[in-house]
Write a structure and sequence with these properties.
The protein is of the alpha/beta class. The protein is built from eight helices and eleven strands. The chain has a domain of 201 residues: Nucleoside phosphorylase domain (Rossmann fold, 3-Layer(aba) Sandwich), CATH 3.40.50.1580. The longest helix is centred in the last third of the chain and has 14 residues. Strand 9, helix 3 and strand 10 form a beta-alpha-beta unit. Helix 2 crosses helix 6. It starts with 7 loop residues before the first strand and ends with a helix.
């Protein structure tokens, strides 16, 4: 049977794999120049369109945020021809009006992580990508419409701050992020969003508010139980949103994400070592030819 290119890659939890209406399911183990991804890629058909799924923290949630192989995850999806990536993530709210159970589609990103492999481009080939707008506006708009269609309480926009984890914030940290104008807090969106941009893939986040982090004096501080309980309650919403989103995506992208490297590579192609060129050929070959 002919294998069609997935229209969407989803990075999230295992609950999505039980999506109602998903057919022709197969698993694909993929190796990359950056190692193995967090899990095998699950491929399937949804509403007549092909989709790919990846468990960010591994099967059974065994990989902490700072140890996720973000480069391998994005590269593996890219190798399948995936043009768009949807991240389904938990987040804490840093605003009174973003309540647990709500969904946020953020439009800005603040990176407070450290020590993560944040770029495909190492010594020998330098690239400076633009991430002034870190999320794809086209995909984010379609995602927001799909959340609303699925009956979710949606908040469009807001700044997501990514912390290193695995611990939660102190109250002083949480209040500082609020003072800085951050809207939600999570542990996995960076460097995932930046790597997707380097791979010229659209990227958007469906952030499920599970708690008020630790700043809210009238609410209990965030706990694992609180996060899991809210995520489980939102599983149906995530599934319905995904089904609506897949059906709404146009065949061709109308954004600039697919040209992100066009003016980003600064190293002369004559100075790129053959082995490095082979390693990154999936990402850069059309610019080095």
């Amino acid at each position: 049977m002919e294998q069609r290119t997935p229209v969407l890659g989803v990075i999230g939890g295992s609950g999505i794999y039980q999506l109602e209406g998903l057919t022709s399911i197969e698993q694909r183990a993929i190796d990359t120049p950056f190692g193995a991804p967090s899990s095998p890629i699950v491929l399937g058909e949804l509403a007549g369109r092909r989709v790919a799924f990846l468990a960010r923290h591994g099967i059974g949630h065994t990989i902490p945020p700072a140890e996720v192989n973000y480069r391998a995850n994005i590269y593996a999806l890219k190798s399948l021809g995936v043009p768009r990536v949807l991240s389904i993530s938990a987040c804490g709210s840093l605003r009174e009006d973003y309540a647990p159970g709500d969904v946020v589609v953020p439009d800005q990103l603040f990176d407070r992580t450290c020590g993560r492999q944040a770029s495909f481009f190492e010594a020998g080939l330098v690239a400076h990508i633009s991430v002034a707008e870190p999320f794809c506006g086209e995909l984010s708009a379609a995602l927001g419409e799909s959340v609303t269609r699925a009956g979710g309480q949606l908040h469009r926009g807001g700044a997501l701050v990514t912390i290193n984890g695995p611990r939660f914030s102190t109250r002083a940290e949480s209040n500082t992020y609020r003072a800085w104008g951050m809207s939600i807090i999570g542990m996995t969106t960076t460097p995932e969003a930046f790597l997707a941009r380097e791979a010229e893939m659209c990227y958007a986040v469906m952030a499920h508010v599970t708690d008020y982090d630790v700043w809210h004096i009238a609410e209990a501080p965030v706990s694992v139980e609180m996060v899991v309980r809210t995520l489980n309650a939102n599983t149906r919403l995530a599934q319905a949103t995904l089904a609506a989103l897949v059906q709404s995506l146009p065949a061709e992208r109308g954004c600039a994400c697919g040209e992100a490297l066009h003016d980003a590579l600064i190293t002369s192609r004559l100075n790129v070592a053959p082995e490095l060129r082979r390693k990154l050929s999936l990402l850069v070959e059309r610019y080095l030819a």
